[in-house]
Amino acid sequence: MQSIPALFTTRKIGLVVIFISFTLTLNYLQAQEESTEAILQSFVDSYQTDHMAQTITFGIRIGDDDWWHVKSIRKQEGYLVGKRQQYTFHNFGPHEVSLHSGQPEAPTWYFHFANRETLDNINNKVWTASTASAKSFGSDIVALNIRDMEGFQSGIKDDAIVYEVMEHFWKKDAVEITRFARDGSLPTHGVDHVGLYTMKDKRIGWFSIGPDQAANAERGLDKGQVPNLFIVTKGRGQADFGDGIVELEAGMSVFVGQYVKHVIYNPYDEPMEGIVVLFGDNIDYARGPSYMDFLEQQHQFYEEYDGWIKEREGQIMKE
């Protein structure tokens, strides 16, 4: 027979276990009870003070028929600084951002979440939106797709805006922090990947190539229309750049030009990890102008912008 103190201790421990189990269950149920509207509204509230907010209307579709849309009007105000008032700084926000039930009034593009679980994973920072939307091929089925409503056809400009909205609307921190690890990754291009930051002219991601895994080994992925930069931060691997095998190890970076073969694989026992930068979307340079043509146009913009700055400085000097 148990003594009174031992019996009391056993019952006390049992009550603690029951209380902890009840608390965990209650927290789980509360998380499940958080409505889709409340989650989306939290992203809207954050976007109101985001310095990268856009003036845009876009749709959100969760599953088959749960539609929402967001209207955003960016607010910024410039002010002059410097001894001669020669510089312009800017204040951003608060922006006018609102959430509405149903489809957008006019056809446009929208974020299509495969299910509520995908939204929960992004809300709970299990995935980033760019991780959930990463594809090897356009036909790939992923957790988060960007689609066009009937009657709307997006172009390259729309793609650029989509990337910027995706990166900033679906992150709620004032300083946007992304954690990367294999348990928060999704497969793409044959490796585990976490999207760190995506814009039209650059895609930055974390990659992990496990033992016997290979990146870009599938037909059509071993060469691209834009340059790539690989930075190895952990482990070892090997690469086929078309003229023999190159050993890769932590502390190396590799720049791969457009149309240069790059198959990277790991024959070793530990994962090889690092950062990859893609300088744009391959498809943009597969239908005419090359990536170098784009750079020439960018240089032209810099020249025109430089001329505008010099003209403005001249006006300030006269005043």
Notes on the protein architecture:
The chain is an alpha+beta fold and 319 residues long. The chain has three domains: 34-174, Nonspecific Lipid-transfer Protein, Chain A; 178-288, Jelly Rolls (Sandwich); 290-319. The protein is 30% helix and 30% strand. It has six helices and 17 strands. The radius of gyration is 25 Å and the shape is globular. The termini are far apart.
Helices, by number, come to 6
CATH class of the largest domain: Alpha Beta
User: Which stretches are poorly predicted, pLDDT < 50 over at least 5 residues?
Assistant: 1-17
Total number of beta strands: 17
Helix/strand order: HHEEEEEEHHEHEEEEEEEEEEH
Oligomer: single chain
Residue share in helix: 25-40%
- How many domains, as an integer? 3
Beta-strand residue percentage: 25-35%
Characterize the largest beta sheet: strand count, sense, and whether it forms a barrel. 6 strands, antiparallel
- Sum up the overall morphology in one term: globular
What Rg do the Cα atoms give? 25 Å
Distance between the termini: 99 Å
Instruction: For the largest sheet, list the strands in their spatial order.
Output: 8-9-10-17-12-15
Q: Write down the overall mean pLDDT.
A: 88
